[in-house]
Amino acid sequence: MRTDDLHDRDPRGGASADRVPFAFDARFRVPLALAGVTPSTAWVELGDDWFTARFGPWVVRTPTTNLAGARLSGPFAAWKAVGARLSLADRGLTFGSSTDQAVCVRFHVPVTGIEPLGLIAHPALTATVADPEHLLRRIAALTG
After folding, report:
1. What is the value of pTM for the model shown?
2. Are strands 83-86 and 58-63 parallel, antiparallel or unpaired?
3. How many angstroms separate the Cα of 114 from the Cα of each of 13, 16, 48, 91, 108?
């Protein structure tokens, strides 16, 4: 599959909005699907104005002005990375569908996402997207 084929242009977001799918490890597809996380419900969308990460029923949405930066991370142990996970050390959120590389996105103002009441705010989100380098470039272009 070509890299360009991984990104769906979202007609609602204009020509500059990219939707990057998650990288699904075959070992975790069934357990993730039981939680509502499938390739059609797991993606990161980055436009000029909004950053949205959906992972089944979990969603993080914030203005792009709240993006502080991003870095590559991984590989990971499965027990630390697969599923929607909260770090007890720093309250970081992980949306993980594989144990390979991921993008860790940092926020100026912490965002909500792990629970529906918005009581826990996350300073960062780690997402195991299919093309981490592309997402890193897009975030770098916005955060300069």
Report:
1. 0.88
2. unpaired
3. 25, 28, 25, 10, 18
Cis? peptide before 75, omega within 30° of 0: yes
Domain ranges of the chain: 3-143
How many angstroms separate the CA atoms of 63 and 46, rounded? 10
The three state secondary structure string of the chain is CCHHHHCEECCCCCCCCEEEEECCCHHHHHHHHHCCCCCCCEEEEECCCEEEEEECCEEEEEEHHHEEEEEEECCCCHHHHCEEEECCCCCCEEEECCCCCEEEEEEEEEEECCCCCCCCEEEEEEECECCHHHHHHHHHHHHC
Q: Which two tokens mark 7? A: 């990104």
What confidence tier does 79 reach under pLDDT thresholds 50, 70, 90?
confident
Six-digit token string for 128: 């195991």
Greatest distance between any 2 Cα atoms in the chain: 40
The string of pLDDT tens digits covering residues 99-113 is 999 999 999 999 999
Burial of 18 (0-12, 13-18, 19+ CB in 10 A): buried
